[in-house]
Write a structure and sequence with these properties.
single chain, alpha/beta, six-stranded mixed β-sheet, 19 strands
Amino acid sequence: MRIAIVGAGIVGVTTAYELAQDGHEVTVFEQLGAVASGTSFANAGVLAPGYVTPWAAPGMPLKVLSGLLSRHAAVRFGARWPLALPWLLRYLRACNASAYETHRRALHALASLSQDRLSQISASLDLAFERAQGYLVLLRSPQEAHRYRSALAALDALGVRHDWLDEPACRTIEPGLSPATPLHAGVYLPEAAVGNCRLFAHGLRQHLAERGVAFRFSSEVCAIEPGRPARLSVQEGGEVTRLTFDRVVLCTGHQAGRLLTPVGIRLRLEPVWGYSLTARLRDREAARSDGPKAGLMDERFKVAISRLGERVRVAGSAELGGHPEAMHPRALATLHRVLDDWFPGQADLSGAQYWKGARPMRPDGPPVIGATRAEGVWVNLGHGSSGWALSCGSARLLADLLAGTAPALDPGPYDARRMR
């Protein structure tokens, strides 16, 4: 079939790969100038299926409330947050133990499939993307360690390999951790990893271009007319053209609503903004022992630290109602604090890159993948903060559904009809 993909983030590029693998003629439309230039540009890079969980979880309502009160809160509110109130109310209703457990299992299944598929793709294409093995959750105090015990039970239930480490064992895994910062214990996920999402997307795009997949950048899809064929109105260079395709797949993140609403589909998707800073390690030789080795998570502040080649990336925060161009000073202050607590002086912050990106979040948790009620219109949307960790599995699931073949996992939890 002739298939159009709208959006060239990590989800769009991996979807293009899987559909091209199945023999379809694929064209990717992207309003920006390159792949992975939006939400996929500078994310945390974490590839940890055991740590992919719904944002709607028991206890989260209190953390959301703390966003109004605490300087280093994990959740913050931007000036536009009242516009997100209907979404927020649905989200709060989903913060119950029963829904959380159901959605956690669905996300873990998809993330596990994704990790396997990513490994297969990177090996077959010989893609290098600054991957580093291992993920260490840092617990600063006995109280944090006690609260984290419930998470261990969940990891056990899902069959995720993990090791409970005391302080000396944590420092053996990550010898560069500052001795001045209190550390009580940690949880190590040896099968998890971190990697450069944008670098992977660019490598995959080059392979696809060589195979004949068309990428049309600086191309804004203005409207969709459902049908067989479906029609796209595309604006390029000030001119609007109408193109026909057998299927259209939306991978546009939180911007998908402007295309779905006119065709009668209401999409409950909210951009929850995340922040990151990326900086080169000061001394290449010293960084081998003093800088981070792979991936870490500061459980207190919900901030990830990732080793990406000769650089370190610190990422976290969740901002509702934020503006894409407005950097919240407290969010940046938290990133700096976590980096300084664990690896003081290791990064050259004079040339640091600061980034803010929209993570397209469903109120309940799992993304929506598959056909919509609009004929010829498919979606692969709503991956939240785990788009990188879920992308390859989501793409394979969509390709199997489109082909009518039995997918590797139950597609029910991701049914696009949940958008009603």
